[in-house]
Here is the input.
Amino acid sequence: VAVGITGMFSNALNFLPIGRLDGGRVAMAIAGRRSANGISFAATLSQAVSLFTTSSPIPLFWGLFVVLFQRGFDIPPEVY
Here is the structure.
């Protein structure tokens, strides 16, 4: 049960519409690159607010992970 909950929680975090996470790629596919940047900013801001309103260390870890590793520009695919 604990492993299942951990996997479900990590998948839920991966679907946040931020940067190059899976949720960010979905947001870019649905709304376009410009709108996805706004959605990503709003999600990052709401994550920062949740960091100060909860006592859990998970938003801090995930926020640092996103800021350090996932906020770069997405490399577009090459078209032949």
Notes: The chain is about 70% helix and 0% strand. The two ends are 47 Å apart (CA to CA). The helical segments are 2-14, 22-31, 33-53, 58-70. Residues 33-53 form the longest helix (21 residues).
